[in-house]
Structures are given as structure tokens and as C-alpha cells.
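User: What would this chain look like folded?
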Amino acid sequence: MLATVERALAERMAAAKAARVDGVPTADEFLDALHQLERRKEFGKHHKAMLAALHKASERSLTAGELAEAPGWNSYGPANAHLGSFARELSLELGYQPVKADSRDPSAWTYTLATAAPDRSSEDHFRWRMRPEFAEAFERFQNGGSASGRPSPTRTR
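Assistant: Here's the prediction, encoded as C-alpha cells.
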């Protein structure tokens, strides 16, 4: 019985990874991961505030300084650190490592849920652009969308 369940879980995880485009997790995978992190209390109000600001921004693109304003911080440092550590947990939950991930730079993990916007701010600051797959998942999460019920990939820690 246990072997049958393990085999079914492995098949579901393989199917989810096969559905990825260019290796990026699907909206369903992101949604499941968001629910898992929320259940474990690893998805806090400050994360949700920054992600909501990024989601509603024009072209879903903001600088770290603009992200910092959402939870009421005065500088980009906490935004980079908190969003990066959240993105790392999200990445581990998904069994996904973004190309730019770097253990020495916590904000590099943000590439899990966002990419570099093609344009810079008027002050020439780097801008994050939310990935469309994550944007769809986050919108569904905000609207009370439930996880698919599929198991999350095994964490890789």
C-alpha cells in the first residue's frame, strides 16, 4: 500500500515538473507552495504586502525601494532580505532553483517568483517583474483559491 502511494506521488510530481515551461513552476505548483508556506507560518503579512504591491503595480514591476513601502519600511534592505528569504523557501518547496540563485545574495532567490524588468526606474534602480505563473497563483491565492490537493514536491534541504 505504501509503495503504491509513493509511486502515485512520484508520478504526480514528475507530471507537474513536465508541465513546466523553461523549468519555471506552473501556477498550480506556485499556488500549492503558497498554501504550504502559509500553513507553516512562513508566509507573513509583510511578504503578502510586498507581493500584493508588486501584483497590482503597472506591468507588475517595482524596485526594492517601492516594495519596501508596502510593509512600511524606509529602505530597500529589508525588502530584499525578506522577499529573498521567502523566495528561497518557496523555491525549496517547489524543488526549483532559479538560475541566478546565490547563497551569498539572499535577494537573488527572488528570481523564483520574479525576473529582472527590462526597464529601470527613473532613478536608474533595478526593477523586479512578477513572473506570470506566480502572478496567476498569487491572484488565485488572494481570491481564496484552494490548493489543488496534489502533494508538494519533496523539499530539497
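The beta strands are 61-62, 114-116, 128-130. If you want, I can go into more detail on any region.
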